[in-house]
Amino acid sequence: MNERFIAFTNRLNKNFKHFSKLMRKQNIDAYRIYDKDIPEFPFAVDIYGDSRVIYEYHTPHKNIADEERQNAVLSVCMATDCTQDKVHYKVRQKQKGDEQYQKTGILGEDLIVSENGIPFWVNLDKYLDTGLFLDHRNTRLRIKNEAMGKRFLNLFAYTGSFTVYAAKGGAIYSETVDLSNAYCEWAKRNFKLNNINTKQHIIIRENVLEYIQQTQKQFDLIVIDPPSFSNSKKMTNSFDIQRDHVLLIKQAMKLLSPNGVLYFSNNLRTFKLANEISEKYNIKDISAQSVPIDFRNKKIHRCWQIKHFQAALK
Ligand SMILES: C[S@@+](CC[C@H](N)C(=O)[O-])C[C@H]1O[C@@H](n2cnc3c(N)ncnc32)[C@H](O)[C@@H]1O
User: Fold this and answer.
1) Protein residue with its CA nearest to atom 10 in ligand 1
2) Which domains are delineated in the chain?
3) Per-residue pLDDT tens for 111-144?
4) How far is ligand 1, taken at its centre, from the CA of residue 45, in Å?
5) Torsional class of 156: left (φ above 0), alpha (ψ -120 to 50), beta (otherwise)
6) 180 CA to middle of ligand 1, Å?
7) Distance between CA atoms of 10 and 124, rounded to whole angstroms?
């Protein structure tokens, strides 16, 4: 291995020892051990059970050569005690449209990882993302803790992980909405894996923007975690979180019962919550609690708890 990578290997090893112990105690198989800790090594490294994922952060000014990539893989193997076939290498570039959700062309292998004792299907090759967004682990647990006896709505649901937690926490009914057939199927497999009844917990393949205008139902707990931008062929208009969040939140608040709670989150660095929303509803920024301890980048997402004002008076 190149000498330059010794610092990277040492940091990985130190973090792996620390986080593997911490996460084992909590029954968590999937977590981050390296998050661009050393600027010279612009990677994130995640553990998924016996497998590892390296994300290379592409910077326009610096191209990472194949040899450097190979060195990064060797460092991960040495530091976390695994063989090279267990390491999955991905390049994170600025995405256009819904590119992030397109297939990579590699089929990969479906694996099960557990989080707080709850199993999920992941695939470390098929798409850029794995099926489980690790930065939402804390919010998933929060949903489980708040779900008892509630009607739950999961918008932009991806593989349905928030709903799995809600059902495990005792939600009596739920709707899980996503535009993608592939992710609705994946959600279905996660429900099956967790013995969740799909008559009580319904998966809907639809454009959220149309769904929220049409549904007449009321929910007590809602999660909205949209992409920053989406222009899928299945949509008539594009979706832009900065431009469209006011309408989205206002529509969703109409579906929220008077004492209900809505969680709204997104990953857009430059995102500003409109004054209209903070004035109209009872808002709390919970990002300091929602970003997990293993994410050094505390700006990975922002998350707000939103309630009707009258709920606070009761
Ligand atoms: C950031 S991911 C959501 C992550 C998810 N909340 C979680 O924590 O697992 C975005 C998801 O939004 C879906 N999506 C994008 N535009 C949509 C739309 N207009 N209506 C419904 N789903 C949409 C994508 O298919 C993708 O699954």
Assistant:
1) 227
2) 3-94 (3.30.750.80), 112-313 (3.40.50.150)
3) 999 999 999 999 999 999 999 999 999 999 999 9
4) 23
5) left
6) 8
7) 25
